[in-house]
Amino acid sequence: MEEQPLICVKIERSFVEFELEMPENNENILNLTDVPVSVGVKRGTRTVNETREVESTISNQGMTLIEWIRHFGSLTMYFDVDFFVGLIEFDIQTFHDTLPKVRCLSITCLIDQPDENDILEAQNLLRPFLPDVRHLQLNSVPLSENLSLQHIGMANLKVLSFEYLSNVRFVDLCTCNAESIIIGKKGDQMSLVDLNRFFKLWITGSNPRLEELFIEWDTETIPDWNILLKGLKAEIDDDEDEEGTKYFTIQNNRDISAEIKIHHSEDTASVRFEII
């Protein structure tokens, strides 16, 4: 196995990296109960101008990989975890049971054309962590019937961030409990009709916990913002003066007001919805 488990502890500008060299085996699955052959340590400091490092090797302390993870987990109440679909070489459930609560979770799919196995892996990565996660980021993760925004939205997320995919509809977010939703998209195909429908549903009472929605996509063409604002009874704020930007205010049936900021630059457009 070329890549070895790496645990990095960062304290302000200082860092300590522990590279755990695992014994070779004939399987592709990393055994979390194996004892590392050796533990490489890299200590250093980083500044704007330079990085200083000192490398050494320490005893494996007779601890298994799980015990090393638990040892470092004892230093903090919460973990941030990044997963990459297609590169997982250990049992997810065992890893989940080893960690303290994960508050920030990122899942990235590096595969251009993911198949059913990749979708299943993403689903298996997300399921055990979702009840405790508060910040969730999905990068190019394919959604499906068993891994949909409706399922994800049932969690009490503080922040949901994902890349807009062709099979995603904004109305799928209407039952989402997230306080903040951030959506990015590569390409110029963005359905303002669908987004308009989402805002109309908010006016009638959906997404009561939503405080902010931000959407950005690539386009050199100025969008027809009238499509987005149709039927919202939006009031324009003439006091705001910013090139390429307009501000509107809408109100829902619970007398809660929100500001919609629409913006277009040379090659991107964005919409920001924020409770005021």
Automatic annotation (TrEMBL):
Residues 149-214 form the Sdz-33 F-box domain. InterPro entries: F-box_Sdz-33, Zygotic_Embryogenesis-Asso. This is Sdz-33 F-box domain-containing protein. It comes from Caenorhabditis nigoni. The lineage of its organism: Eukaryota, Metazoa, Ecdysozoa, Nematoda, Chromadorea.
